[in-house]
Hints:
It contains nine helices and ten strands.
Amino acid sequence: MKIGLSLSVLILSLVSLQPTDESHGVPIFLYHRFGPVTADSMTITTAIFESHLKYLKDKGYKVIPLRQLVDYYRGEGAPPPPRSVVITVDDGHKSVYTDMFPLIKKYHIPVTLFIYPSAISNASYAMTWGQIREMKETGLFDLQSHSYWHPNFKKEKGRLRQVEYERFVEMQFKKSKETLERKFNVKVDMLAWPFGIYDDELISKAVEAGYIAGFTMERRHTGISDNIMTLPRYHITNFLKSFTIDILERYDGI
């Protein structure tokens, strides 16, 4: 309970900001897995997750689609409303369907799912294509790419010859995009970097593959002056060790 309360305080600190403008930016929250208990460091309990959604609703924060924020940063849309936040989920774990989905319907908020297709309807821990389709049909979920099988690009670069590595990267980006677009008739042009790993070469390959925005796990608010291919997100878990006092001090009470 103490951990849960502390995490809720952290969330409140991160979203406590004045109306959206260039200096304040918009926080993007990143979740992975959900459940009744914290089975691993990537899991947040469903009860704590609902407490986040309830707080955002009760305090008048606006959960906006990630697409709306990206359009604004690209100069193609209006500024997001004051007190905006974005919610994203990486990987496609089955608990997104069993635990998160009912809450998203209850609070009726938009979520962007970054999927790596190789696991879907294949790995025991992942959702099925049918489950994802059911979620998409609510109109609350946008489906975007997390590469094809979530590789560690640093390791792959070290073991492959340059030509092989370039082909590998192209396959990861293009096959994920093409698979999701074919199955769901959606526009896939946003990419969550696997393990948060990126560099200039990867960014160039992603742009060539048709991606217009990329997302990291760097813990700070997004801003209009950020590189659109490396927008930061706060990775939210039940454990506080990955968060620093600086974050709490910087955003608490703003």
